[in-house]
Amino acid sequence: MIKKLGILGAQESGVGAALLAKKYDWRVFVSDFSQIKDQFRKELIEADIPFEEGAHTIEKLEDCDLVVKSPGIPESAGIIQKLRERKVPIISEIDFGSRYFKGKVIAITGSNGKTTTTSLIHHILKTADYNVMLAGNIGDSFCRKLCDQQSDFAVLEISSFQLDDISNFKADVAVLTNITPDHLDRYDYDFDKYALTKFRIANLHESKDHLIICKDDQKSTELLDRLLPKSMVHQIGAEDFINYLSDSDGLEYQLQLQGKHNKYNASMAVCAAKLVGVDEDNIRLGLASFVAIEHRLEPVATIGGVDYINDSKATNVDSVYFALEGIDSKLIWIVGGVDKGNDYSQLKDLVKQKVKAIIILSSHPENIQTAFGDLDIPILHTESIIYAVEKANEMSEHGDVVLLSPACASFDLFKNYEDRGHQFKDQVQKLNVNDTGKAVSHQS
User: CA end-to-end span of the chain, whole Å?
Assistant: First the structure.
């Protein structure tokens, strides 16, 4: 009997799930409460998949055997509540995709470092000539990749939103980089609720499965003791980056990534690679050839002796802490966006030591102004990336760093963090150097 699949949300994960379901002969219906972007609408039409936009028709969705939910739709949404009341099973796109994957899964989640760790694990496995795909919360969705590719390994970055609705998904190797407050607006401002969602990555583990956690992360170790997963647990610290390889001479400077937080990321990546059989020579080659990912402490340019760094992916306070901690120069800090319940107090000492000016790029600057207003530091506010870069240029001196590290989501002024990072880089590239060596802008 042909089964019916409803899909809520018609962006990357929803359309990917629709295409995979069509491949495996599900009768698919896609529903999006917003207008569907042209690229995704075109894909649905070409695949002959029925859809609606601008509304959810509950009668069509409750008639489905299963519903796949976009990670962007919160549990509190009216359509989710109605489907729950009608006992319609709801799962995530990651969970649906896992039904059709035949290889081994390495899944990475965490509040900070998951994109770098995911990319590094994938790079090491590719360096070792493994047949491996990269998907999830990075690049293409898992389901989209599975439409035309099977592989021996899948390296998946997974967000807390994607873990909310897993029922059968299980990673052979699960990596939990850390758990620090983030997305608290989605979890009733309850840190424990958010943390428990992250730990779902090990919920279905058996004794043959592996869980890698940071032994220096308080919340991860607390939940490890409380929940007692069945996994083989590997507790990793920054120093284990050296310890995991038998001949460590010169290893530190072979890693292209800077900062203590990247020692943690690299340690976990090395552990995961060894667990799936990568030899030490290929691990070394992978570490030495890996370069920083876009929007994560990404060097953009040095203009007039000032370094411009794009850290747009730093959407929570802990990510910004690592960025500030790892930079020794004086900083012009561009910060702000949609506040997710941030506690900025842990940044105050670092800001006082390192930041010479704050530029708040946000439609709601109040929380940041309140947090740092008592420091003897100039604070400017703007809703224009052009103005932010121009003012940072004016206020900086030779040897300074201009750092975009927002600590917030991007949705007040930008499409997403990538859009914010790209616009920042575009404006930096429009700066020219005059005869004095000082950057000037032609954007007036």
Answer: 64
